[in-house]
């Protein structure tokens, strides 16, 4: 039996998100996030009433984290930056220098140990003041996200060459449409998820174009997005089942990726047609 080998140059890495590991939820000028608010005001939403107040305490133990990563032998570490740790109000009029210092120290420690930083700008911990404006259902967040991205590029882009704007837009949307315990846990099913993903796509585009326009020539990095995709396979080879599977693929995977990668820059036609049909059946004068 021949051995299976990874190709030369293949990179191994691991990933975390800020709320899951950092702790220090209200220290050194950090603002409140939607996960802070949810777990403090409605602890029953989490089965064991856990919070991220301390988590892995990576805010203080980042050097130990990097040592463990080096021992593991990974080539890159994908971590997210906490928007409210950088901009406590969500706006760029107040920049928290302690937050800038923390991520500078983490990035420098990674590079010193031969590990590439891969940075996610947003992994679900929206500043609570922006949620008070409607959160991701409000398209004005595209403006604020662009402002936030500019702060990140300006402070970290000389060393960070791999950026992800937003982690898993459809999961973010669940916080506005599904009773699953995702922050901000506001239930507007049938409407909220579409508004959220649309605003996220606009935000991604704004951050991407900003980098291409103002930073790429001097920093030479790349900007992308992280999506959660499920591949749907029909149970039989019938034409009917294959068509059904393709519809689900288009409405699940295509929802986020078709606007980004297609020539039209729009949602999949099958998704638009289905939503228009369902909206009409439910008595709406316009499609959701």
From TrEMBL:
Annotated PROSITE patterns: GLYCOSYL_HYDROL_F1_2 (PS00653)
InterPro entries the UniProt entry points to: GH, GH_1_N_CS, Glyco_hydro_1
N-terminal signal peptide: none
One Gene Ontology molecular-function label: beta-glucosidase activity
Keyword Nucleotide-binding in annotation: no
A GO BP annotation: carbohydrate metabolic process
Top-level taxonomic group: Eukaryota
UniProt keyword list: Glycosidase, Hydrolase
Pfam assignment, any one: Glyco_hydro_1
The family this protein is said to belong to: Belongs to the glycosyl hydrolase 1 family.
Protein name: Beta-glucosidase
